[in-house]
Amino acid sequence: MSVMKRMSMIFKSKANKALDRMEDPRETLDYSYQRQLEMLQQVRRGVADVATSRKRLELQINQKEREQQKLTDQAKTALQKGREDLAREALSRRNAVESQLGELRQQFASLQGDEEKLTLASQRLQAKVDSFRTRKETLKATYTAAEAQTKINEAFSGISEEMGDVGLAIQRAEEKTQNMQARAGAIDELLASGALEDYSGPRDDIQAELDRMGASGPGVDLELERLKAEVGEGEAPKQLDAGRGGEAKPAQQEARPAQQEDAARPQQAQNPPQPGGAQ
């Protein structure tokens, strides 16, 4: 394939694609209907022209018939008056008029036939135009409904250009909102930990430290003691023992005799047993 043929094919394909995007079926149907109306108008105009020609021939035929009758009467009158020569001349002219009259009648019959054909064609074309008009309006309404349904479906699915822009705007707004919320939370945490200072009020280092210590709460210490108790490296949290009700009291009762024994040991050390069994 030569370069020129390839260029021609590419140009035609591009032009066809561009025209396909630009084409609106409703406009095409309206244009076709308009062309059919123009054709119907031309047929009607032809029927009117043929009818006019037929009427003109009809007038000529009537005129020739009157002329023929007049020549016949003249020939009779000439014979009555003994003028045979005048009668011969009148009959000769009547024969010429009769010949012309025959041709006019043939043309009249031909035009009358053409007029009937054109009238029938006009009626058929009128019926086709009316049928096409009904079908055109139906197709236009169907196309409009399908186009509207397509736009609605595209809007619901978010694939249309306008709704796509709206969806992107909403997505960007959500992302910015999340970023602002994350930034605000991070600043609150930094302010609570003391990494950042709050310049909106008077500075109080002691209160800031207390707030920082209170932010962790006693839950961490309790959890640490509980874990130590589980691995055997410490006692169970006192709060947990206190929450058990009366389980902590036996341990206290056992601790009291031990303390009494420890208190009695110094007294025994101060009063050693006397030799000879003296107390």
Please give the structural blueprint.
Layout: H1 3-22, H2 25-80, H3 84-157, H4 161-193, H5 205-216, H6 219-231, H7 238-243, H8 248-270
Q: Could you explain how this protein is built, in words?
A:
This protein is mainly α and 279 residues long. The protein has a domain at 8-160: Helix Hairpins. The protein has 8 helices and no strands. It has helices at 3-22, 25-80, 84-157, 161-193, 205-216, 219-231, 238-243, 248-270. Helix 2 packs antiparallel against helix 3 (84-157). The chain is rod-shaped.
Share of helix among residues? Answer: over 70%
CATH architectural designation of the domain at 8-160:
Orthogonal Bundle
**Structural class by secondary-structure content:** mainly alpha
Quote the CATH topology of the domain at 8-160.
Helix Hairpins
Properties at a glance:
8 helices, 279 residues, rod-shaped, single chain
TL;DR?
With 279 residues, this protein is mainly α. The chain has helices at residues 3-22, 25-80, 84-157, 161-193, 205-216, 219-231, 238-243, 248-270.
